[in-house]
């Protein structure tokens, strides 16, 4: 279980010095000596009832005492259920949700600090944090503009505010988290990184349409940084909008003149769609002296494609490229071309389907899975495909397909597959709990055993 200690940075105040207050209170709270903290703080307030840091530490003491005694209830997230991961990290370290009445008490004391000093940025940040943890979204939304007014952090504050949205999302309040991002972008409308981060949150929540909308907003800003570039590339590729991914790379190159790879990615896009000039373009680019000793990934891929080793349609070479640890754009380019060049290869089609599955484009992934079902493959690979296809269908809300596919592996010898099938079939059958009870009756345990147990407990 995570432990949170809210030691907000203090500013010097009249009366009792900051260093003395910090030296006395923080070690006591860390040692869980809350009675001593309270006695010490009360003694300060007795002589100086308007001492802001004393009120702050009084709130800290109440908050930390509560969090240390608080049991964390697991929340099942999409990441926990993900068929491509054997771990359910949300069950191992669930977020704490403090009681509202306790947070109200902490808020009361911290507002006494603000009554004495209304400029305390640390207090506003602390309030936003506890509002997020206790899922008091309205209070959090109201506090954000006040925090900005009293902050000296500049645009950095916008990125710190994102953590408040994530506090809500981690506690299952996805829509509320989106509201927080909406307020942040209203306050910082020209900050491409904020739009990009919001797009990433949408993708995390399987809202690919929303992710593209926010990515488009980021592209309307004057400049993007490297992290934003990579995020936008991934989103646009997953959404089958590769032209926009190329434009994101070109926009980044305008911001960073030392970055010279935009022409290579444009040529690689030509390779992916098999335009008539891709080979000549890449070959010409590779004669440029600046690329001769460059070890950048896209340079190496282009060098290979322009070499005599790559002679066009070759299954073995394509599969070797598909197995290489390439970046998103390079991987997409090989996958997109291979999907058309080898339509009868189950391996190629399944690699393509999994690429889009990872990008939460379940509808397109399912169309590829559906085609792959008609192709030749051995029974083990077919069982593997059925499990992943079933999960993708479940996420696309295609319950008839998901049910049929999960039923096909519900008695599989593979423990992980079998328990995954029982979990999703059981979840789709609620309030009938027969299948979930069958799942938790098994002696061996995967993450789906624990997820099923949690559903039954609820």
The helix content is 55-70%
Coarse structural class: mainly alpha
Instruction: Report the β-strand fraction as a percent range.
Output: under 5%
The overall average pLDDT, rounded, is 92
Query: If you compute it from the alpha carbons, what radius of gyration comes out, rounded to the nearest whole angstrom?
Result: 27 Å
Question: Number of DSSP helices?
Answer: 26
* Assembly state: single chain
- Unreliable parts: 1-17
| Biggest β-sheet description | none
Report the end-to-end length measured between terminal Cα atoms.
Answer: 20 Å
What is the H/E order? HHHHHHHHHHHHHHHHHHHHHHHHHH
> Which descriptor suits the 3D outline?
flat
Strand elements, count:
0
In short:
With 458 residues, this protein is mainly α. The protein is built from 26 helices and no strands.
Task: Explain how this protein is built.
The protein contains 26 helices and no strands. It has helices at 18-30, 34-47, 52-68, 78-81, 89-92, 100-116, 121-133, 137-150, 156-170, 174-187, 192-204, 208-219, 226-238, 242-255, 262-273, 278-285, 297-306, 315-322, 328-341, 346-358, 362-372, 379-395, 399-409, 415-429, 434-440, 447-457. Helix 22 (379-395) runs parallel beside helix 24 (415-429). It is flat.
Annotation keywords:
single chain, 458 residues, mainly alpha, 26 helices, 69% helix, disordered N terminus
């Amino acid at each position: 279980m995570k432990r949170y200690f809210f030691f907000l940075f203090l500013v010097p105040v009249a009366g009792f010095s900051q260093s003395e207050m910090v030296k006395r209170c923080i070690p006591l709270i860390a040692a869980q000596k809350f009675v001593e903290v309270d006695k010490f703080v009360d003694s300060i307030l007795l002589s100086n009832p308007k001492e802001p840091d004393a009120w702050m530490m009084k709130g800290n003491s109440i908050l930390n005492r509560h969090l240390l005694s608080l049991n964390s209830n697991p929340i099942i997230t999409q990441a926990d259920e993900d068929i491509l991961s054997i771990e359910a990290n949300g069950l191992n370290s669930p977020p704490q949700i403090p009681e509202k009445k306790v947070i109200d008490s902490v808020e009361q004391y911290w507002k006494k600090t603000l009554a004495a000093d209304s400029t305390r940025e640390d207090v506003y940040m602390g309030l936003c944090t506890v509002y997020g943890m206790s899922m008091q979204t309205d209070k959090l939304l109201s506090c954000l503009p006040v925090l900005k007014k009293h902050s000296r952090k500049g645009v950095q504050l916008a990125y710190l505010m994102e953590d408040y949205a994530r506090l809500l999302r981690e506690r299952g309040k996805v829509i509320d988290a989106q509201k927080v991002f909406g307020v942040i972008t209203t306050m910082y409308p020209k900050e491409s990184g904020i739009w990009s981060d919001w797009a990433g949150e949408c993708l995390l929540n399987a809202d690919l349409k929303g992710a593209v909308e926010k990515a488009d907003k980021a592209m309307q800003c004057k400049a993007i940084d490297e992290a934003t570039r990579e995020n936008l590339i991934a989103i646009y590729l997953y959404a089958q909008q590769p032209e926009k991914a190329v434009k994101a790379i070109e926009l980044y190159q305008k911001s960073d003149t030392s970055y010279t790879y935009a022409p290579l990615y444009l040529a690689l896009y030509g390779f992916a769609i098999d335009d008539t000039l891709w080979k000549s373009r890449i070959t010409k680019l590779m004669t440029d002296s600046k690329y001769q000793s460059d070890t950048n990934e896209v340079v190496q891929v282009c060098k290979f494609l322009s070499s005599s080793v790559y002679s066009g349609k070759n299954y073995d070479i394509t599969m070797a490229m598909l197995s290489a640890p390439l970046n998103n754009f390079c991987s997409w380019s090989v996958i997109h071309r291979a999907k058309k060049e080898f339509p009868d290869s189950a391996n190629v089609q399944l690699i393509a389907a999994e690429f889009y599955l990872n990008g939460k484009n379940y509808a397109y992934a399912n169309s590829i899975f559906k085609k792959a079902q008609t192709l030749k493959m051995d029974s083990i690979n077919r069982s593997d495909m059925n499990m992943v296809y079933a999960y993708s269908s479940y996420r696309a809300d295609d319950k008839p397909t998901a049910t049929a596919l999960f039923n096909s592996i519900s008695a599989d010898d593979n423990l992980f597959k079998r328990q995954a099938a029982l979990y999703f079939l059981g979840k789709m059958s609620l309030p009938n709990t027969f299948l979930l009870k069958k799942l938790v009756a098994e002696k061996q345990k995967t993450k789906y055993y624990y997820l099923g147990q949690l559903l039954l407990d609820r």
